[in-house]
Amino acid sequence: MVLDNNAHSVFLLHYHLILVVKYRRRVFDNLISSRAKEIFEYIAPNYHITLMEWNHDADHIHILFRAHPKTEISKFINAYKSASSRLIKKEFPEVRQKLWNEYFWSQSFCLITAGGAPLTVLKQYIESQGEKSE
């Protein structure tokens, strides 16, 4: 097991994040998911976050990431949701037709620490997302 560290600590913080499109609208395809992932990877370093695994279903995304103890995860999630919503609606105007009242993401999210299951199991689970619907 390889641990992360900084000047004063050693840590290993993995999180499984699930973000759902408002009212479970089915907007994700491979192209939109890929763009959402690019936005995540652009914002993440500012919050000491490293993407480990990404996948989508038509109405939600699964993200496995590593964080730093000083990471303000809720601020990162809000920044990501705001930026991705704005950019995806701008770059993919057809998405707006599937949304209700311009809302892209559901206000809520699911964030789970990845300590209960081996990471390989989580990675396999995320890799299998979307296989039934595409």
UniProtKB/TrEMBL annotation:
Q: What is this protein called?
A: Transposase
The record ties this protein, via SMART domains, to: Y1_Tnp
Provide the taxonomic classification.
Bacteria, Bacillati, Bacillota, Clostridia, Lachnospirales
Q: Which PANTHER family match?
A: TRANSPOSASE FOR INSERTION SEQUENCE ELEMENT IS200, TRANSPOSASE IS200-LIKE PROTEIN
Residue ranges of domain Transposase IS200-like in the record: 10-129
Entries under InterPro entries matching the protein: Transposase_17, Transposase_17_sf
The Gene Ontology terms for molecular function here are: DNA binding; transposase activity
Residue ranges the record marks as coiled coil: none
A GO BP term here is: DNA transposition
